[in-house]
Design brief:
By secondary structure, the chain is an all-beta fold. The protein has a domain at about 35-115: Sandwich (Jelly Rolls). The chain is about 0% helix and about 60% strand. Strands 1, 2, 3, 4, 5, 6, 7, 8 and 9 form a 9-stranded antiparallel sheet that branches.
Length: about 120
């Protein structure tokens, strides 16, 4: 039996998981999330598409994450650091230990790969 080692990162035919930041992390607005987790591999590797509606919340990363913005506008600010305005086409990495805020200015959709 043939098993493909190719996996498209797409929302087609998949039901998203819906969520939101923990209430104690919300700084402003009422943001909500949709996540299409298309890959979940042994060793804590995840990949998929995530979308969030406008709002601002605190984030803390214990994992490593690569992000590529597909649409929308967000501002990610590290505590004690500069604000990074992110839009379609931008790619970045959040490293373990990152603490700060994520503000969605316009509904934002990103592709992600997480290594826990």
């Amino acid at each position: 039996m043939y098993v493909s080692h190719f996996l498209a990162v797409s929302t087609a035919g998949a039901e998203p998981e819906e969520g939101a930041p923990a209430p104690d992390r919300i700084v402003s607005g009422a943001p909500s999330f949709k996540t299409w987790n298309v890959e979940e591999a042994d060793g804590g590797l995840y990949a998929g598409i995530w979308e969030a509606t406008p709002g601002k919340w605190r984030i803390e990363y214990e994992e490593w994450e690569f992000c590529h913005i597909l649409s929308g506008v967000s501002i990610v600010t590290e505590d004690g650091g500069e604000a990074h305005t992110l839009k379609a086409g931008d790619s970045f990495i959040l490293r373990p230990g990152f603490k700060g805020t994520w503000e969605v200015v316009e509904t934002t959709r990103k592709e992600y790969v997480i290594r826990a």
